[in-house]
Design a protein that fits this description.
GTP Cyclohydrolase I, domain 2; 4 helices
């Protein structure tokens, strides 16, 4: 059986990107800031890279990390949902090899009274053809 035309769904994960930034709907969050933790899973076909050992067949995860960090450090937004959307759009714009991705943004210390570990959201986006 031929592999011609088959799309492989491999993935690259960048986990635990920890960035201090000033996002949030509350004024105190924008003044004091806090850490945000970003996890990204990029789904793509890594068959060429796995066979040819060539960076052109994959996503340079060092560059992707720098792009994610730059976005999180940029202009504050109210919602971590919006921040995750900005990350996904930028990665899709930069890397046409990415077919789908999951972006999780975690606030380890949101301003909520109570006992909990953290608050996070995850978005899943697919490239539209």
């Amino acid at each position: 059986m031929s592999d011609y035309g088959k799309i492989w769904m491999d993935n690259i994960k960048i986990n635990g990107i920890k960035v201090y930034a000033y996002h949030g709907a509350l004024e105190a969050e924008r003044v004091l800031g806090q850490f945000f933790i970003i996890d990204v899973t990029m789904y793509l076909d890594l068959r060429t890279a796995s066979e040819d050992d060539n960076l052109n067949g994959t996503v340079h995860y060092g560059e992707a990390y720098e792009l994610i960090e730059q976005i999180v450090k940029s202009e504050p937004v109210n919602l971590i949902e919006h921040l995750a959307g900005k990350v996904s759009m930028a990665l899709f714009d930069r890397y046409d090899k990415i077919l789908e991705m999951d972006v999780t943004v975690t606030k380890p210390s949101p301003p909520i009274d109570g006992h909990y570990e953290d608050v996070s959201i995850t978005i899943n986006r697919k490239r539209e053809f």
